[in-house]
Specification:
- The protein is mostly helical.
- The chain has a single domain, classed as Four Helix Bundle (Hemerythrin (Met), subunit A), CATH 1.20.120.
- Helix content is 74%, strand content 0%.
- The protein is built from 6 helices and no strands.
- The longest helix is centred in the first third of the chain and has 24 residues.
- The protein is elongated, with a radius of gyration of 20 Å.
- The termini are far apart.
Protein backbone atom coordinates (compact mmCIF):
# COMPACT_ATOMS: atom_id res chain seq x y z
CA UNK A 1 0.00 0.00 0.00
CA UNK A 2 2.76 2.45 0.87
CA UNK A 3 4.42 1.90 -2.49
CA UNK A 4 1.21 2.84 -4.33
CA UNK A 5 0.85 5.96 -2.20
CA UNK A 6 4.45 6.97 -2.86
CA UNK A 7 4.05 6.24 -6.57
CA UNK A 8 0.85 8.30 -6.76
CA UNK A 9 2.49 11.17 -4.88
CA UNK A 10 5.47 11.03 -7.22
CA UNK A 11 3.20 11.19 -10.27
CA UNK A 12 1.23 14.08 -8.85
CA UNK A 13 4.43 15.85 -7.90
CA UNK A 14 5.92 15.32 -11.35
CA UNK A 15 2.76 16.53 -13.03
CA UNK A 16 2.76 19.64 -10.88
CA UNK A 17 6.45 20.22 -11.50
CA UNK A 18 6.35 19.98 -15.29
CA UNK A 19 4.43 23.23 -15.91
CA UNK A 20 6.81 25.09 -13.60
CA UNK A 21 9.72 23.98 -15.77
CA UNK A 22 7.97 25.11 -18.96
CA UNK A 23 7.12 28.50 -17.45
CA UNK A 24 10.83 29.17 -16.94
CA UNK A 25 11.80 28.32 -20.51
CA UNK A 26 13.02 31.37 -22.44
CA UNK A 27 10.59 30.69 -25.28
CA UNK A 28 7.64 30.73 -22.86
CA UNK A 29 8.89 33.82 -21.01
CA UNK A 30 9.30 35.84 -24.19
CA UNK A 31 5.90 34.70 -25.47
CA UNK A 32 4.31 35.93 -22.26
CA UNK A 33 6.20 39.22 -22.59
CA UNK A 34 4.89 39.68 -26.13
CA UNK A 35 1.35 38.88 -24.97
CA UNK A 36 1.69 41.71 -22.43
CA UNK A 37 2.94 44.03 -25.15
CA UNK A 38 0.12 42.97 -27.45
CA UNK A 39 -2.48 43.73 -24.80
CA UNK A 40 -0.88 47.10 -24.05
CA UNK A 41 -0.60 48.04 -27.71
CA UNK A 42 -4.23 46.98 -28.11
CA UNK A 43 -5.27 49.31 -25.30
CA UNK A 44 -3.37 52.17 -26.88
CA UNK A 45 -4.60 51.40 -30.40
CA UNK A 46 -8.23 51.56 -29.27
CA UNK A 47 -7.58 55.04 -27.92
CA UNK A 48 -5.73 56.14 -31.06
CA UNK A 49 -8.51 54.80 -33.31
CA UNK A 50 -11.23 56.40 -31.19
CA UNK A 51 -12.66 53.02 -30.21
CA UNK A 52 -12.23 53.90 -26.54
CA UNK A 53 -11.87 57.27 -24.85
CA UNK A 54 -8.40 58.64 -24.20
CA UNK A 55 -7.32 57.87 -20.64
CA UNK A 56 -3.98 59.41 -19.68
CA UNK A 57 -3.46 57.07 -16.70
CA UNK A 58 -4.24 53.94 -18.74
CA UNK A 59 -2.03 55.13 -21.60
CA UNK A 60 0.89 55.79 -19.28
CA UNK A 61 0.39 52.43 -17.55
CA UNK A 62 0.46 50.62 -20.91
CA UNK A 63 3.51 52.55 -22.10
CA UNK A 64 5.28 51.88 -18.80
CA UNK A 65 4.64 48.14 -19.05
CA UNK A 66 5.91 48.12 -22.65
CA UNK A 67 9.08 49.87 -21.44
CA UNK A 68 9.50 47.35 -18.63
CA UNK A 69 9.16 44.44 -21.06
CA UNK A 70 11.67 46.07 -23.41
CA UNK A 71 14.21 46.36 -20.59
CA UNK A 72 14.81 42.61 -20.36
CA UNK A 73 13.29 41.23 -23.56
CA UNK A 74 16.59 40.61 -25.34
CA UNK A 75 17.88 38.52 -22.44
CA UNK A 76 15.35 35.78 -23.21
CA UNK A 77 16.99 34.61 -26.45
CA UNK A 78 19.93 32.50 -25.26
CA UNK A 79 21.65 30.02 -27.54
CA UNK A 80 19.64 26.80 -27.55
CA UNK A 81 16.23 28.51 -27.43
CA UNK A 82 15.87 28.78 -31.19
CA UNK A 83 13.16 26.11 -31.31
CA UNK A 84 10.55 24.55 -29.10
CA UNK A 85 7.46 25.73 -27.27
CA UNK A 86 5.97 26.95 -30.57
CA UNK A 87 8.46 29.80 -30.72
CA UNK A 88 8.08 32.35 -33.49
CA UNK A 89 11.65 33.58 -33.07
CA UNK A 90 13.37 33.71 -36.46
CA UNK A 91 16.86 32.24 -36.92
CA UNK A 92 18.05 35.77 -37.79
CA UNK A 93 18.05 36.55 -34.06
CA UNK A 94 21.04 34.25 -33.64
CA UNK A 95 22.69 34.78 -37.02
CA UNK A 96 22.42 38.58 -36.74
CA UNK A 97 22.63 39.03 -32.99
CA UNK A 98 24.08 42.53 -33.24
CA UNK A 99 21.20 43.63 -35.45
CA UNK A 100 18.65 42.07 -33.13
CA UNK A 101 20.21 43.64 -30.06
CA UNK A 102 20.20 47.02 -31.81
CA UNK A 103 16.48 46.65 -32.61
CA UNK A 104 15.69 45.73 -29.00
CA UNK A 105 17.69 48.76 -27.81
CA UNK A 106 15.78 50.99 -30.24
CA UNK A 107 12.52 49.52 -28.97
CA UNK A 108 13.53 50.31 -25.40
CA UNK A 109 14.52 53.88 -26.37
CA UNK A 110 11.17 54.45 -28.11
CA UNK A 111 9.28 53.01 -25.15
CA UNK A 112 11.24 55.13 -22.68
CA UNK A 113 10.64 58.25 -24.80
CA UNK A 114 6.92 57.49 -24.84
CA UNK A 115 6.86 57.12 -21.05
CA UNK A 116 8.87 60.33 -20.61
CA UNK A 117 6.42 62.18 -22.87
CA UNK A 118 3.57 61.07 -20.55
CA UNK A 119 0.90 61.86 -23.15
CA UNK A 120 -1.72 64.13 -21.61
CA UNK A 121 -4.07 64.03 -24.59
CA UNK A 122 -4.86 61.99 -27.67
CA UNK A 123 -2.53 63.99 -29.91
CA UNK A 124 0.32 63.36 -27.48
CA UNK A 125 -0.43 59.64 -27.53
CA UNK A 126 -0.56 59.57 -31.32
CA UNK A 127 2.84 61.26 -31.46
CA UNK A 128 4.53 58.47 -29.47
CA UNK A 129 2.34 55.57 -30.62
CA UNK A 130 3.39 55.73 -34.27
CA UNK A 131 7.16 55.44 -33.74
CA UNK A 132 6.71 52.77 -31.09
CA UNK A 133 4.52 50.52 -33.23
CA UNK A 134 6.63 51.10 -36.34
CA UNK A 135 9.56 49.81 -34.31
CA UNK A 136 7.57 46.72 -33.33
CA UNK A 137 6.61 46.05 -36.94
CA UNK A 138 10.09 46.45 -38.35
CA UNK A 139 11.53 44.07 -35.77
CA UNK A 140 8.84 41.49 -36.49
CA UNK A 141 9.63 41.69 -40.22
CA UNK A 142 13.14 40.33 -39.70
CA UNK A 143 13.16 38.58 -36.34
CA UNK A 144 9.78 36.87 -36.11
CA UNK A 145 8.64 33.87 -38.14
CA UNK A 146 5.47 34.38 -40.13
CA UNK A 147 2.57 32.21 -38.98
CA UNK A 148 1.28 29.92 -41.70
Amino acid sequence: MKFRTLFAAALIGAAGFAPAIAADEPQVVRQEMMKKNGADVGTLAKMVKGESPFDAAAALAALTEISEVAATFGEHFPEGSETGFETEAAPAIWTDRAGFDAKVAEFKEDADAAVAAAPADLDGLKAVFGPLTQNCGSCHETYRLKKS
